[in-house]
Amino acid sequence: MEKYSRWRDTGTQIQPFLPPKPALTNESPAKATLNTIKNYIVGPPIASVKLLISGALLLTLGLLDTFAIVLSFSGLDRHYRLLIYPVFLRPVLFFWGFYWIKSSTVTLQKGIRKQKVADGNAVKDGDILVCNSLSYVDILYLALRHAPTFVQVFGDGSVKPIGFWAAVYNAGSYPISATLADGKSGSTTLSQLATTAKLNSAGPIVVFPEGTTSNGRGLLKFLPVFNGFDFEKQRIHTVGIKYEYESFCPSYTVGSPLVHVFWLCAQFANFMEVRYLTPGELRASSVATPLPAGQDAVSNHVAGVLGQVLRVRRTALGVQDKKEFLDYYKERESGSKRRTRR
């Protein structure tokens, strides 16, 4: 859309904030009819039923999750979540159309075959999972798989540990400004948080260095969350998440989240792929290509590796650009509603 051309990356010509549209193809009349039936006749009633069931599951999970607060004093809260999250979140994803989620390790070395991840056994307490941010669906998958500590990333690179529900709320919401100080009480560095998690056996740390969601067509500019990082002392797992779609993309960047979930449930099937790169390979690549001097050197290196894992290009757009995009989008939407009322 030309009215959003301001948020097109000049180097790659990628618009990372607009909801993706399916590629224009010459559909056969039979397929076009099937899509119409799915989107307007069969899909909405099925989506309503799926939403009721998944809503009940999430509500039950929310009630059970409150017991984890009591268990946190004994250090058993993560073990408790490792039990209940898969029981409730995997059925939710199933009702949302993710019947099977492809998970595998990948390598950046040519000639070596990909291997299947063995139930996340390679992820240990205090490990850091660096993920691209696409949707609230990412949060559900990572929670049921690892029961991790999620973090809120601030513009100066500091982080604040948050829970599962806060992470879901933050996914796709208005990003925190690079200069905003509100809510930073309790913030720390990612390195310190990982060390504490390892000592307390609190599981892995999930960080989204982009600081906000994109549509998956390109990687956003990383916030300086890896300043002062040492690959020899801390383990970083690079995790790339991708969605395949025909008519509706699970990536969520703008608009009503409830409407997005509704149309997500209206699809017959949704497809998600998760690619893991082991810490050893990330460490080896940092040795093979020495990091340049500068405070963003490690962030730039990790972003480059994540781009290779996902096989997408990096853009020069970031959190501040997403804020400006959302401001403009909301202004246009409110203007359209006022003209409609007249």
Main sheet specs: 8 strands, mixed
**Beta fraction:** 5-15%
Termini distance? 25 Å
Order of helices and strands: HHHEEEHEEHHEEEHEHHEH
For the secondary structure, the number of strands is: 10
Given helix and strand content, the structural type is alpha/beta
Roughly what is the average pLDDT, rounded to an integer?
A: 85
Q: Major sheet: order of its strands?
A: 2-1-9-8-3-6-4-5
Q: What would you report as the Rg, rounded to the nearest angstrom?
A: 20 Å
Helix segment tally: 10
Low-pLDDT ranges:
116-121
Gross morphology is globular
Structure description:
It contains ten helices and ten strands. The protein is α/β, with parallel strands linked by helices and 342 residues long. The protein is globular. The chain starts with 28 loop residues before the first helix and ends with a helix. Residues 116-121 have low confidence and may be disordered.
Question: What tags apply to this protein structure?
Answer:
two-stranded parallel ribbon; single chain; alpha/beta; 342 residues; eight-stranded mixed sheet; 42% helix; 10 helices
What does the secondary structure layout of this molecule look like, with pairings?
Blueprint: H1 29-65, H2 67-71, H3 77-95, E1 101-105, E2 115-116, E3 128-131, H4 136-146, E4 149-153, E5 159-162, H5 164-170, H6 190-199, E6 205-207, E7 218-219, E8 236-244, H7 257-265, E9 271-277, H8 279-288, H9 297-310, E10 313-314, H10 319-341
Parallel strand pairs: 1-9, 3-6, 3-8, 4-6, 7-10
Antiparallel strand pairs: 1-2, 4-5, 8-9
Helix pairs in contact: 1-3, 1-7, 3-4, 4-5
